[in-house]
């Protein structure tokens, strides 16, 4: 029932959190039951959804380390139909806390699977996992737990360069921990039509990767409203529904649902 | 003799690599002997200085894991007076490779100290360490090895939020692994005068932090030339000397040297 998608890219600042929050909100806006798992010690997805540090009583750390059931950690957000498992600094301690457990890479997978069995048809339609900017144990855990990956790709030179490392890591996880893993799609982000670099990166991505991996038609433009919204603890769709950033994430949600149906 | 500065911030995409490369180049341009240590598995500082994957024969991984002397790993770059210890993907394996060593956090410190003793007055004036976007063992190693820290702070909401985590980590390292560690300064980056968020973040940073930590007067503007230059394997100062990004890093270099003399 629940489709589990990890939002990954080890390159920093490419729009992982912004995509998790706004794509999640857009999917909830069209009636899907959505959960975001904040799996980054920075806790940005929690902040961006208005769940402050004081409200993060049970976090994704507790779910993987203490095996707290997922539904006990999930909290409502200001978006109807969108819930969150908060993240916070203690996530930085996951690697050490699980060092003794040979099956540590399966902790999140097991938590989500047991939730899926308990919830059945009433469960979330889509679970998005917001990952940190590294290929460390948290990201490996998320890749192992996922049906598929969403890869935000900033339209910048360094971001393109990092993609081959990411694709190699996906192959490693696919050959061992999670044989069914694939890439649902690459999402071009922070596209700035004022500068030629964006167009060049888009063209190179579609030429070099287009045959191997799906690249969404929807491109997320650079839009200041997307970076202002987190300061108000709201997704851009609630902060400014009409801005180009919100519209792009609404289009992305519908393209994703099309693709999910087709798969 | 050599002053060791780590460029750190666990928030991704805030300008750590861009600052390491362009500040390093500007310091070399005014006659300092500079080394950049690429300590990020993404290897962006190496790419941005035109040192391709094929030229990364000995990397910072070899310096910390196999104790290869620093001067054997350092390579010349296209910038006179600026050398590089390349970084590459195998850095992701440092944590596992050193797991058995109780003194693993001191590996980079020991490598740089033994270099300083061997080189004496002929050594580098400044060593910049470009860190990955995490507070994991590589960043802890770099903080332990450093005299002081440079903290690029992107003028965005999430970047401000991450600062308190960073300051707490610095205190932890200072209370144990490196009692002399301090923050040399915070560098405001990607300042976009077209959007009010930049001004708000600058104002909040100077108000909230100004008393505790030095914040450079020089602010790095958002400037597309800074993001185009890495595609040509050149620092912005060689790609376009006259652009606002290059001029800001030249000013930053002179402000840093002033501060270093004053300290
Ligand atoms: N399309 C966009 N237009 C303008 N600003 C954006 C856009 N997408 C993201 N941002 C801003 O850019 C910064 C980086 O985005 P975000 O934090 O979502 O990236 P991330 O990949 O999650 O970063 P990290 O690697 O630190 O987890 C944030 O300040 C965010 O508000
Ligand atoms: N002042 C600036 N103006 C415009 N673009 C910039 C500026 N500084 C950096 N960039 C671009 O923004 C992106 C992020 O910068 P950079 O890679 O230096 O950050 P980082 O902190 O090193 O990222 P990571 O966390 O992945 O190591 C890069 O594509 C870079 O070219
Ligand atoms: Mg994020
Ligand atoms: Mg970097």
Which helices and strands appear, and what pairs or packs with what?
2 copies of one chain form a homodimer.
Chain A: E1 3-7, H1 16-29, E2 34-38, H2 44-48, H3 60-65, H4 70-73, E3 75-76, E4 82-85, H5 94-97, H6 107-119, E5 126-130, H7 137-145, E6 148-154, H8 157-175, E7 182-189, H9 196-209, H10 224-228, H11 236-239, H12 244-262
Parallel strand pairs in A: 1-5, 1-6, 2-4, 2-5, 6-7
Antiparallel strand pairs in A: 3-4
Helix pairs in contact in A: 1-12, 6-7
The structure holds adenosine-5'-triphosphate (2 copies) and magnesium ion (MG) (2 copies).
One adenosine-5'-triphosphate (ATP) sits between chains A (12-18, 40, 44, 132-133, 189-190, 220, 222-223, 226-227, 230, 245) and B (11-13, 133, 156, 158).
Can you describe what's shown?
The structure is a homodimer of 263-residue chains. By secondary structure, the first copy, chain A, is of the alpha/beta class. In chain A, 44% of the residues lie in helices and 14% in strands. In chain A, a hairpin with a 5-residue loop joins β3 (75-76) and β4. In chain A, α6 runs parallel beside α7 (137-145). The first copy, chain A, is globular. Chain A starts with a strand and ends with a helix. The model of chain A has no long low-confidence stretch (mean pLDDT 96). Chains A and B meet through α2, α8 and α10 of A and α2, α8 and α10 of B. The site of one magnesium ion (MG) has 5 residues of chain B, from α1.
